C-alpha cells in the first residue's frame, strides 16, 4: 500500500466517537492497524492479532458487526452494480426522505456491445462514484464491495440472465470486465474506490434447477473457455474476488470448488475476498444434500477458498455457530478462520474503511448520484451500444428535413422498463419522447402501443372485472357495463403470457397472495405476479389462467385459475372451478397502430421484451422468438407503411427471420436506461453512427440448439468459435451509415508478441465508427480447433475519406490450447491464419503467421492417467472424485471415452483402473473404435459407495503399436485414473 504522508492520524477515541460508538477505556490509544503509513500486511496482521476468536468468526458473515472496543464499524459486503447501482430508491437520511435514484446505464450485454473498453471504464468509474455516494447515505444498505460485473459467458442465448453477461467470447468478456472493474476501483495505487467481485464462478449458464444441476466442464472447456472469462480482470487487479455460483461443477457444488483457491488465487498476488451467493451455504445441506451438517458444509466452504458467507439475511449468528462448531469438532483450525479474515480485512483496508479519515475516496458525497455528467455519459453509452442489424435501400438514417410525420408504435414505444438488477430510473426518455423531441415543433408524431383494450365479463353473472382508480384497488366482479374501470390494455409477451394494465389508473394488475389489485408501475418482484393467460374454450369463452412465477413452485399447488368469490373479489381456483369470461375488445391494438402508421413518412415499431417476464434470474427462455402478437403487429404495420423501421429493445438474441426478410431496417438495443429514447432517436436520425456490434451469435432457430445443460461447446459446436451453420447474424456483426475499406493486413512476430496492422479508410460521405476485429485460425492440430477466434479489436472513428492504421497486438502464448495429454497449455507449431474484418463472418483481409511451437507427442498411457482427460466421449458425465477435490468419469451402460494417438509400444499387458461402484460392472478396453478389437475386460466389483475406490485390473492382448484407445463402460460406475502397461 502506498503511504499517504498528508494524513494526520486521529486518536482512537476521536475515531470511535466519530462513529457514534461508546469509547471503552482501553480504546484510548492508537493502534498500528489504524496507521495508513504502515504496509498493508502489517496493518492486517496487527488487527488480526487483536481480534478474539468470536470477533474473527463474526466477520465471516455478509453483515459484519461493529467491534466498538477497537473502533471498527459495521461493514456490509455486496451491493449489486451491473449497470449502475441496483435497487436504488427513496431512502431515509437523517430522518428526511432523500431521492436517491441513480444513473442507470445500458444493461451489461449493451455495455459490451459498444466494443469500447475506454468508454466502459468511464461507466465503471461513474458507478463506483455513485456507490460511494449511496454509501454516505446509508452504508447498511449500500456497501462499497460491489457484486459486479457478471462474466459468465453467454454460451446459450436462452439463458435467463443473458442481460447480465457480456459475450459468448472469453477475450471480449475479459476485456470489458477488466475495463468496468478498473473504472469502479478508481486510479489510486493503494486504495479502492469500490471493490468489484466477479459473478458467478464457475460454469453457470442455466437457471433451470440451477442449484442442483451440474455443469460438465471437460479440461479443454474449463481452461480454454470458462476460466478465460474470469482470469483477465483478476490478473489485472480490476476485481477483488469472485462469487461462487449456485450450480455444481463436475458433480461438486461450486460453493466448495477447490479451484477457488487453486486457480483463482493463482491469478494474482493480491488478497482476494471471495463470497458465496445468497443462501448457497445452506444449499449444501439442503437442496444439494452434499453434507450432512452445516458445520461440515461451512468448514468446506472456508477450506475451498470462500471468505464471506451470504446467508440468513442479516443474521450472522447461524454462520458463527456453525463455524465454531466446526472448530470444536476439528473440521477447521483457527488458522483457517484467520486466513479468511485476512482476506476480508485486506479489502476493507484498501477501501479505506479502517483508516481514521475513511481513505481518499471518503470525500465523495451523494451529490455524484445522477449527476449531469453521468446523464451525458449514459446517453453516449446508449448511443454507442445500439446495433444496426439491417438497413436496406438506405432506409436509415431518417432525414429530419424530409421526415416530418412519424408514427411511433409498439408495446415499448412510450415506456421504459427496468430489470431485476437495475436501479430506479430518475427520469425517463422513452422512444416516443426521443423521436418527438428530435423532430421538434415542426414535426408530427402519431403513436399507438398496439395493445388490445379489452374488458372481461363473467358469462355466469354478467358482471365485469372491475378495477378502482388511484394507487390501486382490489379487482372485483361488479360493473355491469364496460366503462374505463373495467378496461385493460393487454400486452403480449409471447407464448400466451399477457400483462393487463388498468385503463383506470395506468397500473398493472396482479396477485399479492391475497387479492388481485391494480397497483404496479411495471411487472416486478421475485415472483412476477402480473402475468396471465387467456385460454379460449370450445364455446368461445375464456378462462383466465394466473401465470405468476410462483405458480412454477411445487408449494403453490394447482390453484392457477381465476374465479369470483361470493363478495365478487377475484380468487384462485382449479381449472374445474374457473369462471368463464366473454372478452370484449374495446379497441384493436393492431388496427390502432395501422391507423397511426398509414400515411406517415416513416413508421417506427418498437417491440421487444419485458425484463421481468421474458427471461431473467431463475427463469430461462424457452423460445428465442419475438412474441406472437408483436410479430403480427410488425407485419401489419409493414403492410400499411413501406417505410417501416423495427426497433427491438431486449436483452438477448432473437429469431427475427421474417423481419430480416421483409422489413427495410432493424435496430437493436438493450434496455438502456433513462436515456434509451434519446439513443434511439440519435441513431434513427443519424446524429449517432450505429457502431455497436453483437457479442453473441444470433441463430435462426431454437431447433438447432443443444440442451441448455450441455456445456461442451467443442463437441456440440457452440458459439461462433465452433458453429458451422449459417447464423441470422454472426458474432461481431453490426452495420454502419458509412462504409470502410481495409488495406493489406501486415503481421509480424517478435519477443513473444504478434503485431498486426491494417489501414482502414472511411469510403462513405459520413463520419462513422468501425470496430476492427482480428481473428486467428490454426490450420492443423492434434485437437479440434475453433473455426476462428477473436484475438484483438479496436473501435475507431473516421471522418469521410480519412484513413487510419489500426494496430493490434496479441501474445503468441494466446494461441495455446489445453493439452490433455500433459495437462498444460501448449502452442503447437504450424501455420496460423490471421484475419481482419468487420465481424467473425465478414473477413476483409488475411495473412499467415508461421509459429515455432511444440508438437504434441503420442499419448503415453503407461503412467496413471486421469480418465477425465479424454479426447472424446459418448454419454459419460464428469463427477467429483471426492468431496474435497478431483474429477472422475461417471458412466452408464454403453458409455465410452476415447484417448487419441496412444503409443502402446511393443505391447501393453495390463489395464489398471481406480474404480468406484455400487453394483458390479465392467470396463472394456477396445482399439480404434468403441466396437473395435477387444484388448481386455476389467471386472468392477461393488465398492460400497461412489467415493470408495478400489483397483480393477484386466490382462490385455494385442494392445501394441499406435491406436486410439477406447474405454467402454457397462454398469453404473466411476473411474478416476487408469493405466495401460
Automatic annotation (TrEMBL):
Which residues does UniProt assign to the signal peptide? 1-27
Provide this UniProt record's keywords sorted from A to Z: Hydrolase, Signal
Domain CBM6, chain residue ranges per copy: 863-981
Among PROSITE patterns, the record links this protein to: CBM6
Q: Which Pfam families does the entry mention?
A: CBM_6 (PF03422), Fn3-like (PF14310), Glyco_hydro_3 (PF00933), Glyco_hydro_3_C (PF01915)
Function of the protein? Catalyzes the hydrolysis of a non-reducing terminal alpha-L-arabinopyranosidic linkage in ginsenoside Rb2 (alpha-L-arabinopyranosyl-(1->6)-alpha-D-glucopyranosyl) to release alpha-D-glucopyranosyl (Rd). It is not able to hydrolyze alpha-L-arabinofuranosyl-(1->6)-alpha-D-glucopyranosyl (Rc).
Query: What domain of life does the UniProt record list for this protein's source?
Result: Bacteria
Q: Which GO terms describe its biological process?
A: arabinan catabolic process; xylan catabolic process
Family to which the UniProt record says this protein belongs: Belongs to the glycosyl hydrolase 3 family.
Q: Which organism is it from?
A: Actinoallomurus bryophytorum
What protein am I looking at? Exo-alpha-(1->6)-L-arabinopyranosidase
**A GO MF term:** carbohydrate binding
Amino acid at each position: 500500500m502506498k503511504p499517504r504522508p498528508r494524513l494526520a492520524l486521529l486518536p482512537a477515541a476521536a475515531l470511535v466517537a466519530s462513529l457514534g460508538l461508546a469509547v471503552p477505556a482501553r480504546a484510548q490509544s492508537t493502534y498500528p492497524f489504524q496507521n495508513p503509513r504502515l504496509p498493508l500486511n502489517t496493518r492486517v496482521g496487527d488487527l488480526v492479532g487483536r481480534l478474539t476468536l468470536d470477533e474473527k468468526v463474526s466477520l465471516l458473515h455478509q453483515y459484519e458487526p461493529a467491534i466498538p472496543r477497537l473502533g471498527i464499524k459495521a461493514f456490509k459486503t455486496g451491493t449489486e452494480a451491473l449497470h449502475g447501482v441496483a435497487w436504488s430508491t427513496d431512502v431515509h437520511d437523517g430522518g428526511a426522505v432523500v431521492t436517491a435514484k441513480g444513473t442507470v446505464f445500458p444493461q451489461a450485454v449493451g455495455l459490451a456491445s459498444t466494443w469500447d473498453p475506454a468508454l466502459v471504464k468511464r461507466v465503471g468509474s461513474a458507478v463506483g462514484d455513485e456507490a460511494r455516494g449511496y454509501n454516505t447515505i446509508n452504508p447498511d444498505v449500500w456497501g462499497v464491495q460491489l457484486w459486479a460485473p457478471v462474466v459468465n459467458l453467454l454460451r446459450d442465448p436462452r439463458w435467463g440472465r443473458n442481460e447480465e453477461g457480456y459475450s459468448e467470447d472469453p477475450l471480449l468478456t475479459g476485456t470489458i470486465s477488466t475495463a468496468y472493474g478498473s473504472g469502479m476501483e478508481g486510479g489510486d495505487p493503494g486504495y479502492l474506490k469500490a471493490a468489484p467481485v466477479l459473478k458467478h464462478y464457475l460454469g453457470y449458464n442455466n437457471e433451470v434447477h440451477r442449484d442442483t444441476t451440474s455443469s460438465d466442464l471437460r479440461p479443454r472447456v474449463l481452461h480454454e473457455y470458462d476460466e478465460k472469462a474470469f482470469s483477465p480482470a483478476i490478473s489485472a487487479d480490476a476485481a477483488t474476488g469472485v462469487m461462487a455460483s449456485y450450480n455444481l461443477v463436475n458433480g461438486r457444488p461450486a460453493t466448495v470448488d477447490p479451484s477457488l483457491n487453486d486457480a483463482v488465487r493463482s491469478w494474482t498476488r493480491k488478497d482476494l475476498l471471495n463470497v458465496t451467493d445468497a443462501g448457497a451455504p445452506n444449499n449444501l445441506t439442503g437442496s444439494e444434500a452434499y453434507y450432512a451438517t452445516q458445520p461440515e458444509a461451512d468448514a468446506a466452504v472456508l477450506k475451498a477458498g470462500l471468505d464471506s458467507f451470504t446467508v440468513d439475511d442479516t443474521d450472522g449468528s447461524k454462520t458463527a455457530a456453525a463455524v465454531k462448531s466446526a472448530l470444536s469438532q476439528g473440521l477447521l483450525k483457527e488458522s483457517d478462520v484467520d486466513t479468511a479474515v485476512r482476506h476480508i480485512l485486506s479489502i476493507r483496508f484498501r477501501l479505506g474503511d479502517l483508516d481514521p479519515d475513511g481513505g481518499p475516496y471518503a470525500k465523495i458525497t451523494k451529490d455524484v448520484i445522477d449527476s449531469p455528467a453521468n446523464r451525458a455519459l449514459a446517453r453516449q453509452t446508449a448511443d454507442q451500444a445500439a446495433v444496426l442489424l439491417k438497413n436496406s435501400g438506405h432506409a436509415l438514417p431518417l432525414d429530419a428535413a424530409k421526415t416530418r410525420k412519424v408514427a411511433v408504435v409498439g408495446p415499448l414505444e412510450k415506456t421504459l422498463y427496468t430489470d431485476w438488477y437495475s436501479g430506479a430510473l430518475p427520469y425517463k426518455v422513452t422512444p416516443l419522447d426521443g423521436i418527438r423531441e428530435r423532430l421538434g415543433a415542426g414535426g408530427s408524431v402519431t403513436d399507438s402501443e398496439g395493445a388490445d383494450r379489452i374488458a372481461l365479463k363473467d358469462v355466469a353473472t354478467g358482471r365485469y372485472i372491475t378495477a378502482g382508480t388511484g394507487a390501486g384497488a382490489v379487482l372485483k366482479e361488479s360493473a355491469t357495463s364496460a366503462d374505463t374501470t373495467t378496461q385493460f390494455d393487454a400486452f403480449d409477451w409471447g407464448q400466451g403470457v399477457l400483462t393487463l394494465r388498468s385503463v383506470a389508473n395506468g397500473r398493472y394488475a396482479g396477485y399479492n397472495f391475497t387479492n388481485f389489485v391494480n397497483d404496479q408501475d411495471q411487472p416486478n418482484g421475485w415472483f412476477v405476479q402480473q402475468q396471465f393467460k387467456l385460454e379460449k374454450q370450445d364455446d368461445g369463452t375464456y378462462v383466465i389462467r394466473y401465470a405468476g412465477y410462483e405458480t412454477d413452485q411445487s408449494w403453490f399447488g394447482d390453484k392457477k385459475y381465476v374465479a369470483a368469490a361470493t363478495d365478487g373479489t377475484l380468487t384462485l381456483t382449479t381449472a374445474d372451478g374457473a369462471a368463464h369470461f366473454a372478452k370484449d375488445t374495446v379497441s384493436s391494438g393492431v388496427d390502432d397502430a395501422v391507423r397511426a402508421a398509414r400515411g406517415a413518412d416513416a413508421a417506427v415499431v418498437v417491440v421487444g421484451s419485458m425484463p421481468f417476464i421474458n427471461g431473467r434470474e431463475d427463469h430461462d427462455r424457452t423460445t428465442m422468438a419475438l412474441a406472437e402478437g408483436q410479430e403480427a403487429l410488425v407485419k401489419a404495420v409493414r403492410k400499411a407503411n413501406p417505410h417501416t423501421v423495427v426497433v427491438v429493445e431486449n436483452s438477448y438474441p432473437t429469431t427475427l427471420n421474417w423481419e430480416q426478410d421483409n422489413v427495410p431496417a432493424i435496430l437493436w438495443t438493450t434496455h438502456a436506461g433513462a436515456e434509451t429514447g434519446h439513443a434511439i432517436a440519435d441513431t434513427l436520425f443519424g446524429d449517432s453512427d450505429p457502431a455497436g456490434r453483437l457479442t453473441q451469435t444470433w441463430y435462426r432457430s431454437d431447433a438447432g440448439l443443444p440442451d441448455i445443460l450441455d456445456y461442451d461447446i467443442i463437441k456440440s459446436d457452440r458459439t461462433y468459435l465452433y458453429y458451422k451453420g449459417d447464423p441470422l447474424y454472426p458474432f461481431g456483426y453490426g452495420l454502419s451509415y458509412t462504409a470502410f475499406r481495409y488495406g493489406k493486413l501486415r503481421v509480424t512476430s517478435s519477443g513473444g508478441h504478434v503485431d498486426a496492422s491494417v489501414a482502414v479508410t472511411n469510403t462513405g460521405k459520413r463520419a462513422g465508427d468501425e470496430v476492427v476485429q482480428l481473428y486467428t485460425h490454426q490450420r492443423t492440430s492434434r485437437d479440434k480447433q475453433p473455426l476462428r477466434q477473436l484475438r484483438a479489436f479496436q473501435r475507431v472513428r473516421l471522418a469521410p475519406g480519412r484513413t487510419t492504421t489500426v494496430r493490434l497486438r496479441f501474445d503468441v502464448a494466446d494461441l495455446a490450447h489445453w493439452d490433455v495429454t500433459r495437462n498444460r497449455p501448449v502452442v503447437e507449431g504450424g501455420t496460423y491464419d490471421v484475419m481482419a474484418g468487420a465481424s467473425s463472418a465478414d473477413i476483409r483481409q488475411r495473412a499467415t503467421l508461421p509459429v515455432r511451437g511444440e508438437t504434441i507427442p503420442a499419448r503415453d498411457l503407461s503412467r496413471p492417467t486421469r480418465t477425465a482427460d479424454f479426447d472424446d466421449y459418448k454419454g459419460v458425465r464428469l463427477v467429483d472424485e471426492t468431496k474435497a477435490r478431483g474429477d472422475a468419469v461417471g458412466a452408464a451402460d454403453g458409455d465410452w471415452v476415447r484417448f487419441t494417438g496412444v503409443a502402446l509400444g511393443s505391447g501393453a499387458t495390463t489395464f489398471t483402473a481406480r474404480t468406484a461402484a455400487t453394483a458390479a460392472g465392467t470396463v472394456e478396453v477396445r482399439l480404434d473404435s468403441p466396437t473395435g478389437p477387444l484388448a481386455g475386460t476389467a471386472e468392477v466389483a461393488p465398492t460400497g459407495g461412489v467415493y470408495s475406490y478400489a483397483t480393477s485390473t484386466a490382462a490385455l492382448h494385442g494392445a501394441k503399436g499406435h491406436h486410439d484407445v477406447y474405454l467402454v463402460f457397462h454398469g453404473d460406475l466411476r473411474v478416476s485414473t487408469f493405466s495401460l502397461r
